[in-house]
Amino acid sequence: MSKRYIMGNEALAYASLVAGVDFVSGYPGTPSSEVIDTLRVIKPRDCHIEWSVNEKVAFENALAASWCGQRALVTMKHVGLNVAADPLMTAAYTGAKGGFVVLVADDPGAHSSQNEQDSRCFAKFAKIPCLDPAGVQEAHDMMVDAFRLSEELSLPVILRPTTRICHQKSDVELGNPENPEGGHRKGRFQKDPRQYVVIPAHSRLLHKRLNEKQTEIVEKVAASGYNRYHLEGPHGVIASGIAAAYVEEILPPGVSFMKVQAYPVDQEQIRSFVGRHMKVLVVEELEPVLEEQARQADSRIEIHGKLDGFIPREGELSIDLVDKAFGMAGIGSQSPPADMIKKPEEVPMRPSIMCAGCAHRPLFYMIRKVFREGVYPSDIGCYTLGLQMGAVDTCLCMGASISVATGMYHAGEERPIVCTVGDSTFLHAGIPPLINAVYNGASIVVVILDNRTTAMTGHQPHAASGYTTGGEPCIPVSIEAICRASGVASVETVDPYDIHSLQQSLERAKELQGVRVIISRQLCVINARRAGVKRGRYMVSPEDCTGCGVCVRFGCPAIEKNGDMAEINELCSGCGVCAQLCPSAAIRRGR
Amino acid sequence: MRTVVSIGSDQEGTLMEICNVLIVGIGGQGVILASNVLGEACIHAGIPVRSAETHGMAQRGGSVDCHVRIGSRFGPLIPKGGADILISFELLEALRFRHFLRRDGVMILNDLMVVPTSVFVQGLEVPQREAVISRLEGEKYMLIPASKLAEEAGSALTQNIVMIGAASPYLPIPEESLLEGVKQTVPAKTREMNTRAFHLGRTVAEEKAK
Ligand code: SF4
Ligand code: SF4
């Protein structure tokens, strides 16, 4: 087959088809989302795909498919695995039947995440294998191998690419689908309570069996050939994941190299590598997993890595950082002299901001206006950018806005507590905290920012969007009904583009007690544009503009300042909010 | 013009040259699409390629940088001071990323400045085009009137392809492959227009280089 130029996540998606996957589920999360997004548009598609409501649900669905004998894939980002940790830990006991691959994308450098956790540690915790590709081609090939490995061991297998693999584009050779006839396996559950009902009597036995299987896991992983080394001289380097690609690029001649891409690593293999050198540098992102193993392998050998500061403990690695570590370890650095590299320039920052016409902007603006003294717990999504408007005080993890608000209330916080949570995040993990807030008598305002999509990760649909992952129309879940059924005292729905109504709605909520929900509903402007909504641009009339700056401070990227006057550029999506804010009525819809 | 920045040994053990191209701009300007043109062109020319793009929280309006390593079989990130060519779709972004450029690297710049919204909101001093350009003193740079050329080609949306055309004389990829890259990447209806945009950019760059 000829080469294609594609993104790591696309290669992973195609590779799952090469492996003949039958069932795919997941929850969007950067950098993992494009795997299912790629499968969504492949037609005809002979497997079940779904964006599940959260990672736990996605994991359990896929595990059940595997129990029924299907090949199943579940995708998520690293912090998603925390949500799915409950089923993960016990799935290692029950095991898998059809190949079960847990694709977890880690994010060293926290490019788009709340933390930098290392999923290799999770694999170790759950006592299951983990594959860690160094490049896009390897990621593709590993996906196919992961299904096989899972079936051979009857265990879930974690495939853990990182941001620089998922979002790397590369020339890739794609494999041929394993079952070209098309027909996918039909699942059938074979009852076996001792395997699938984890009452204590069964669990104790299952745990014993999992422990006994560990030797076999090490052997099978070793036999996969993903961990290998070549011996060159007295100095050696061990590296894993994308860091292995950095090392390979600048490895000086005469230095030995061990490339690790699969876990658990055979301790004997590490010992035989380490023991043949005078000093060894271990290069890996996130946690010092390999380094600790190397240090245990032979205490007489000089080992360098994260634990002695040769490699940074936080952030992502780069050729520059690896090269610096080579220099520190005395194994040959190629770095250009410092004066060869220019200093970064001072330039005004250009952070990502909410889109022109984003419905979150008027909402935060009004929350700040009506609840001037408020405390604002928030959540994870585009609206976390409300930080720039001073309307986000906390952001912890999916759904935590409502529980943090509740906790603050019961802790005695007397200022009004107004929390914000997106629609997808609410469905993902916001419902239990809402029920809890009502049940335990909190008095908080919960604003659900409902733009009918999972915007930040690339506009994936969810249960309230009205269409399925594959694009078929379906009945949207009613967020209003969920809130009412939870016992919420007052539920209002408002269009945030109508700032007068928005203000009134917030003011009404301010007067009430108990859990008050406001659903602020307006399509994400990107989706609205795709759906063909045309509103026409707004303009500032130079005769009427007094240069007061009210609209400029609102922060819409379509509004610029030209001298003293405001001006609206072509980014305007016609939401009309600035026109309602202008005290001089100088902003009008253009022709 | 181009010099070797990194020498790596490929899988067969022979030495090959890597040309590092950094494309920068603002979300919504088509930076990633431009990098895809280079990627597809490499496939057409049988050259290995690696690239890395930013997929942050940026929906719109944030700085975007895209690393393309033509001839690389390693990682996708260009080391600081390692870019042979910096293609910038906007002048402030060129300044922001110039430290990635190697000593004698070239900058292909869109003669366009977009003031960040934060400057207006926070009432900071608005940067001026002339001042920004004067800070580029000492660099090998070329200013391309991409929006004018794009209009000439048929649509302002083709600015990114104008810029690829303007950079093309400096790229180690045959023109034929680059044109194939354009064809593969842009929407079918706009192929002709984008091909025109490519040629307009290339011609201007060639004239300026004389
Ligand atoms: S993508 Fe949608 S939700 Fe996100 S900032 Fe833009 S308009 Fe707002
Ligand atoms: S109408 Fe005003 S606030 Fe809305 S997008 Fe246009 S300029 Fe921005």
Describe what this molecule looks like in 3D.
- The complex is a heterodimer of chains A (591) and B (210).
- With 591 residues, chain A is α/β, with parallel strands linked by helices.
- Chain A folds into four domains: 2-223, Thiamin diphosphate (ThDP)-binding fold, Pyr/PP domains (Rossmann fold); 228-340, Rossmann fold, CATH 3.40.50.920; 360-530, Rossmann fold; 538-589, Alpha-Beta Plaits.
- Helices cover 37% and strands 17% of the residues of chain A.
- Chain A is built from 23 helices and 22 strands.
- Chain A has a seven-stranded mixed β-sheet, sandwiched between helices. In chain A, strands 9-11-10-13-14 form a five-stranded mixed β-sheet, sandwiched between helices.
- Chain A starts with a strand and ends with a strand.
- The relative contact order of chain A is 0.08.
- Chain B is of the alpha/beta class and 210 residues long.
- Chain B has a domain at 3-147: Pyruvate-ferredoxin Oxidoreductase, domain 3.
- Chain B has helices spanning 31-45, 91-97, 117-121, 129-134, 146-153, 159-167, 175-185, 191-209, and strands at 6-9, 15-26, 49-53, 63-70, 83-88, 101-110, 140-144.
- In chain B, strands 1, 2, 3, 4, 5, 6 and 7 form a seven-stranded mixed β-sheet that branches.
- Chain B starts with 5 loop residues before the first strand and ends with a helix.
- Residues 1-15 of chain B have low confidence and may be disordered.
- At the A-B interface, β1, β8, α12, α15 and β20 of A face α1, β3, α2, β6 and α3 of B.
Biggest β-sheet of chain B, characterized?
Answer: 7 strands, mixed
**What spatial order of strands do you see in the largest sheet of chain A?**
3-2-4-5-7-6-12
Segments of chain B where pLDDT lies below 50 for 5+ residues?
1-15
Instruction: Work out the helicity level of chain B.
Output: 25-40%
CATH level-3 fold name of one domain in chain B: Pyruvate-ferredoxin Oxidoreductase, domain 3
Mean pLDDT of chain B: 89
Shape of chain A: globular
* First-to-last CA distance of chain B: 13 Å
> What's the CATH first level of one domain in chain B?
Alpha Beta
* Poorly predicted runs of chain A: none
Content-based structural category of chain B: alpha/beta
Q: Main interface pair?
A: A-B, 57 and 57 residues
- How far is the first residue's CA from the last residue's CA of chain A? 53 Å
Instruction: Please tell me the CATH architecture of the largest domain in chain A by its name.
Output: 3-Layer(aba) Sandwich
Count the beta strands of chain B.
7
